[in-house]
Design brief:
- By secondary structure, the chain is α/β, with parallel strands linked by helices.
- The protein is about 40% helix and about 15% strand.
- The protein contains 15 helices and 13 strands.
- Strands 3-2-1-4-5-6-7 form a 7-stranded parallel β-sheet, sandwiched between helices. A 6-stranded parallel β-sheet has the order 10-9-8-11-12-13, with helices on both faces.
- Helix 11 crosses helix 14.
- The longest helix is centred in the N-terminal third of the chain and has 21 residues.
- The two termini are about 25 Å apart.
- About 45% of the residues are buried.
């Protein structure tokens, strides 16, 4: 079977979506499928795209010229338009024509071009949703939900979702969002897996790194590591840091990463939070292991629009989490189901006080960390999740409604 995989980024560009797509490409090639990846030639963030190590059975086609993708709204929009145009042309030029197109949701609405191609060539389409548009635009403040532009973009989203043979979502909140806009879509919920795994050498490296950073063994380290974007919040973590300031054991609240809100957070709580530069991929696992508890957050408007991948990584490493966000978020549900950490609802000082007491209890941290590791084995096992995704690629999904919206 010939499978075309579509995403704006693919390694060596260090986008998390590209890493997931590479895992899928290698797994499909190992099963004997012919795999073509269509991705931008541009860089992600500060890292140049460069050349990807050749994997047997995987053809990587870079669309456009190498450059650094813009970060402003206008620059991003231009990147997206150019990618859409090149994608439509690249799909037509694939020989033989692919049997299945797997399209991720970066850039937004790439699934429209993929759906049109699939319909014209008789191919199947799997839409793998990492985030949802136009819902993400509305959550960011523009365009206004219900306005003329939003309705126009919603039509495009409905087109790609209902024309897909399967829409893959990452959690129950995202599934609800997809079904609200496109009730006829065939949806399968498959959370993302983590590439993180820890061996003995990683644990030794984590202890060395902890000492190098001046973190004593009897201190509790709360770590926010990753994107500091508009979908996230830090107010509850700052409140928790203030509440823990006079605790019998020192509690450090550490932020590591980058993003559009980093400077604002840094300026909002000077001296209260600790800051680290982003770590490279080789040190990621020791870096995450060095902390006692991981911090994850989500703005209420972004629930179901994105699902932070930090949770599966924390569980894979046996680390409990503190989630700042509403109860309807997928991560809040998973924490409640597995007793894997704590939740800080927005603007809830009583919850902050309760968590501040709990994070001083080493036995409780260890128990919740063990629960997180157990939940990873049950719910976020990479092999099992990959197997479910491959099953949807290799076999048509059963329709959930007459016609499945494809007439």
């Amino acid at each position: 079977m010939h499978v075309a995989l579509v995403n704006q980024f693919y390694p060596p560009a260090r986008a998390p979506t590209g890493a997931l797509l590479q895992d899928l490409a290698r797994a499909l090639a190992a099963r004997g499928h012919r795999v073509a990846v269509l991705a931008s030639a541009g860089a992600y963030g500060r890292a140049a795209a460069g050349e990807c190590r050749a994997d047997e059975g995987i053809e990587v086609r870079r669309l456009g010229a190498p450059h650094t993708h813009g970060t402003g709204y206008v620059a991003k929009a231009l990147d997206y338009v150019q990618f859409h145009r090149r994608l439509a042309r690249a799909l037509r030029r694939l020989t033989p024509a692919p049997d299945v197109v797997v399209c991720m949701t970066t850039p937004p609405f790439a699934g429209v071009a993929a759906a049109r191609f699939a319909r014209a060539r008789g191919a199947r389409l799997v839409l793998w949703c990492m985030d949802l548009y136009p819902e993400a635009l509305a959550a960011n403040g523009w365009p206004r939900e219900g306005g003329a532009l939003y309705r126009l973009l919603a039509r495009a989203a409905r087109f790609e979702r209902t024309r897909a043979d399967t829409v893959v979502t990452l959690g129950p909140d995202m599934t609800a969002r997809v079904r609200a806009l496109a009730p006829a879509a065939t949806v399968e919920e498959i959370p993302v897996w983590s590439r993180c795994s820890a061996g003995a050498a990683d644990r030794v490296a984590a202890r060395v790194l902890r000492r190098a950073r001046g973190w004593d063994d009897d201190e509790i380290v709360l770590l926010y590591s990753g994107n500091m974007g508009r979908a996230h919040r830090a107010e509850e973590f700052a409140a928790l840091a203030m509440r823990c300031a006079g605790a019998p054991r020192r509690v450090r609240t550490v932020f590591c990463g980058a993003g559009p809100l980093q400077l604002r957070w840094h300026r909002s709580w000077p001296g209260l939070l600790e800051w680290l530069d982003p770590v490279d991929e080789a040190m990621l696992v020791p870096h995450l292991l060095a902390a006692d508890i991981h911090l994850i957050s989500q703005q209420p408007a972004w629930v179901g629009v994105v699902t932070p991948s930090k949770y599966s990584s924390a569980c894979a490493l046996g680390k409990p989490v503190i989630f700042a966000g509403p109860a309807g978020a997928a991560i809040a549900r998973w924490i409640a189901e597995g007793d894997t950490g704590w939740r800080l609802p927005p603007n809830d000082p009583d919850a902050v006080n309760a968590v501040a007491m709990d994070v001083l209890d080493a036995a409780l941290i260890e128990r919740k960390g063990a629960n997180a590791e157990a939940q990873c084995r049950r719910c976020f096992n990479p092999k099992a999740l990959m197997g479910r995704l491959i099953a949807r690629i290799e076999n048509p999904a059963p329709s959930t409604s007459p016609g499945n919206g494809k007439d």
